[in-house]
Amino acid sequence: MLFVSLLGACAAQPDRKPDAAVRNAAYSSTYKVASNPPVLIKGATVLTGTGQRLDDADVLIVAGRISAIGRELKAPTGAQVIQGRGKWVTPGLIDAHSHLGVYSSPGVRAHSDGNEVTNPVTANVWAEHSVWPQDPGFEKALAGGVTTLQVLPGSANLIGGRTVVLKNVAAITYQAMKFPGAPQGLKMACGENPKRVYGEKKQAPSTRMGNVGGYRAQWVEAQQYVRDFDEYEKKLAAKDKDAKPPKRDLRLDTLAAALKGELRIHIHCYRSDEMAIMLDMADEFGFRVTAFHHAVEAYKIADLLAERGVCAAMWADWWGFKMEAFDGIQENAAFVDYPANGCAIVHSDSPFGIQRLNQEAAKAMARGSRAGLNITPEHAIMWLTANPASALGIKEQTGTLEAGKMADVVIWNRNPFSVYALAERVFIDGVPAYDRARRDAPPRSDFMLGQPVPGVAP
């Protein structure tokens, strides 16, 4: 593994620390699962996130994990029993594209911390270092059933920096929200945004060809950085007393990690031709694109995306707000989903859309059905659970209701794809995180203390 000794390499050789985790220890997750009695949800309609629908089924949660799903499950001693008849149960929703915490509410300039618009390439920055854990938007998202989210830098730059995956829990520090073991991502952007931002500054890039030239120059430099450190490691292994580490560069640390597959690459990209160019560039430099975000024209290359194992994280129906978003269709998600191995994700990119991701997916589901595709609730729920979990590298932990996985669970008052659907209860690792019946519960954000709650008498 490259850079497994990066910090130690810069110190005296006897003190080298070979574990890559040491490098980021100061920013590692401090999230801890709170203890909670077992929970048994009885007689609900369960969408497992694996493509299954189970009617009149029970879900048993023990020690923060899914213990069993089936019928007539027995409640352990001391368990909380919830009657689920008439209710629907799903995995917690996962938003693969959010800016909560880095563009916090209220939306004022003082809270604008998502774009480091000082250079077209800011691979050295990490979105997590801008996250304000007490953004009231987190609580609003939780009321919509969102238990996990990826927070990204904005899209002003060609390469905007590292992303972070968060558990949607109340916390004072972002480290206490950080999803344990989730890999970081790398945010890139193609198209209008970077060329407009820097073109207006009379800087490069100012064209799409300038965008691509800018990426390629960075990857060439990163490849050399990899070679330099590989050569240094070889000298260390040979006990060469004259071995000296290359000068460390935070920007190139990130790009080199992406080349080595340690970061998942997420690209803001609208047009199908540009997505194809980015895939060509991935082939040129040997990295893998995890997902295209927004991807308004993904339907035009659905087969190519499926063939390459690349997800598309999309809106249900946003289009036309700029030229590269002009050729959008409301069947986009359904058409991306259609090929074998197609990976469709419905995302928000919005502090408001994240509150109703289930309804956004319902719109995409309905448009696909009108186009002749038979999209069932048990399949469409994967656009909000299993597929984003896969793209974020956390599918072994969450995204589906299976024995042994994190008990991130939502109880809905009805079919979650109904316009009348509401998340009634939300559990994160089996711990109650939201209860709609408790409208008078204190807010998780200090910012909201003293603010009136609609429908609750003062």
Q: Name the helix and strand elements from N-terminus to C-terminus, one letter apiece.
A: HHEEEEEEHEEEHHHEHEHEHEHHHEEE
Tally of DSSP β-strands: 16
Number of helices: 12
- CATH top level class name of the domain at 93-400: Alpha Beta
Whole-number mean pLDDT: 93
How big a fraction of the residues is strand? 15-25%
CATH-defined superfamily of the domain at 93-400:
Metal-dependent hydrolases
Quote the distance from N terminus to C terminus.
Answer: 58 Å
Largest sheet: 8 strands, mixed
Content-based structural category: alpha/beta
CATH architecture of the domain at 93-400: Alpha-Beta Barrel
Low-confidence stretches: 1-19
**What is the CATH fold-level name of the domain at 93-400?**
TIM Barrel
Radius of gyration: 23 Å
How is the secondary structure organized here?
Elements: H1 6-9, H2 20-23, E1 39-47, E2 53-62, E3 65-70, E4 80-83, E5 88-91, E6 93-98, H3 136-143, E7 146-151, E8 159-167, E9 185-189, H4 192-199, H5 208-237, H6 250-259, E10 264-269, H7 272-285, E11 289-294, H8 302-308, E12 311-314, H9 332-337, E13 344-346, H10 357-370, H11 377-380, H12 386-391, E14 409-412, E15 423-428, E16 431-435
Parallel strand pairs: 1-4, 1-5, 6-7, 9-10, 10-11, 11-12, 12-13
Antiparallel strand pairs: 1-2, 2-3, 5-14, 7-8, 8-9, 14-15, 15-16
Helix pairs in contact: 5-6, 5-7
Q: What can be said about this structure in brief?
A:
The protein has 458 residues and is of the alpha/beta class. The protein has a domain at 93-400: Alpha-Beta Barrel (TIM Barrel), CATH 3.20.20.
